[in-house]
UniProtKB/TrEMBL annotation:
This is Deoxyribokinase. It comes from Microbacterium saperdae. InterPro entries: PfkB_dom (IPR011611), Ribo/fructo_kinase (IPR002139), Ribokinase (IPR011877), Ribokinase-like (IPR029056). One of its GO terms (molecular function) is metal ion binding. The active site is at D233. Its cofactor is Mg(2+). Homodimer. The keyword Kinase applies. The lineage of its organism: Bacteria, Bacillati, Actinomycetota, Actinomycetes, Micrococcales. Keywords: ATP-binding, Carbohydrate metabolism, Cytoplasm, Kinase, Magnesium, Metal-binding, Nucleotide-binding, Potassium, Transferase. ATP binds at N170, T200, L201, G202, P203, R204, G205, G232, D233. The gene is deoK. Catalyzes the ATP-dependent phosphorylation of 2-deoxy-D-ribose to 2-deoxy-D-ribose 5-phosphate (dRib-5P), allowing the use of deoxyribose as the sole carbon source.
Length: 281
């Protein structure tokens, strides 16, 4: 669940400032990406864990309302994961995540069966690394396309990158993972390791690289941002939904870029994600 603080700027260490608005809403990278893919028209099944608390009940209801299969969203004793989001007047954000129930899950035979029935497995680092590694390894043995959003970056994720068919970092994550100082170099380094790499660049669009070479960049529509929280997740959800129906890669990236640009013009995380009818390329 997202706890959003609207504030004029980021406070300095030891400083207290006055914000303008507080909101609670559905969020989390997995939920946001699932909602984006569902709104893009995909058949989405989610493997996750939520707490047996009010936040968990609200998130389960939200997923059901969005048409997402929640059969494998488990209720556990731990508290539902939350994110504290500080949103400044320029639309930028900083986020602190408390994983809670997200760190409690194990990969069951039922989970493997649901993975085996899909075309794409999308994972984020809000779940335990060991769980993700097992899920991605199983998917690779079954010929299922694995998509990794490397956020939030937690420790060494080399094994997960090596298990990825598609890697979708934002610019900061790409620089951190590659050790490079610019997005082009980072995309080349990461894609040379194996995965098709798509680096999201915010208002500058996205950069696509494969086998150590830049293929092309896709510009983003110019918009006035009010909340960038769900932009990256919207991009991933729409990208995978498009690829799942064999949309050519460049067009899929263009669709995802437009959808992400629309999301930043609206407040909220999952609430900001556009429906397919609004996304025009």
């Amino acid at each position: 669940m997202d706890l959003v603080f609207h504030q004029p700027r980021r406070p300095e260490p030891g400083e207290t400032i006055v914000g303008s608005r507080f909101a609670i809403g559905p969020g989390g990278k997995g939920l946001n990406q699932a909602v984006a893919a569902s709104r893009a028209g995909a058949d989405v099944r989610m493997i996750s864990a939520i707490g047996s608390d009010d936040f968990g009940t609200q998130l389960h209801a939200w997923l059901t309302f969005e048409g997402i299969d929640t059969t494998f969203v488990r209720r556990v004793a731990e508290s539902t994961g939350v994110a504290q989001i500080s949103l400044t007047a320029d639309g930028e954000n900083t986020i602190v995540i408390i994983p809670g129930a997200n760190d409690s899950a194990v990969l069951s035979d039922d989970d493997r069966a649901i993975i085996d029935s899909t075309s794409h497995l999308v994972v984020q680092l809000e779940r335990p690394k060991a769980l993700l590694q097992k899920a991605m390894s199983f998917a690779r043995t079954r010929g299922i396309t694995t998509v990794l959003t490397p956020a939030p970056v937690r420790g060494d994720i080399d094994e997960l990158i090596d298990l990825s068919d598609i890697l979708v970092p934002n610019e900061g994550e790409a620089l951190m993972l590659s050790g490079e100082s610019d997005a082009d170099a980072a995309a080349r380094v990461l894609s040379a390791r194996g995965p098709l790499t798509i680096v999201t660049l915010g208002p500058r669009g996205a950069l696509v690289a494969e086998h150590g070479k830049i293929l092309y960049s896709v510009p983003a529509p110019q918009v006035e941002p009010v909340d960038t929280t769900a932009a990256g997740d919207t991009f991933v959800g729409y990208l995978v939904a498009a690829l799942a129906i064999d949309t050519p890669l460049r067009l899929a990236v263009e669709v995802a870029t437009v959808a992400a640009s629309l999301s930043v013009t609206r407040l909220g995380a999952a609430e900001s994600i556009p429906h397919a009818a609004d996304v025009k390329v």
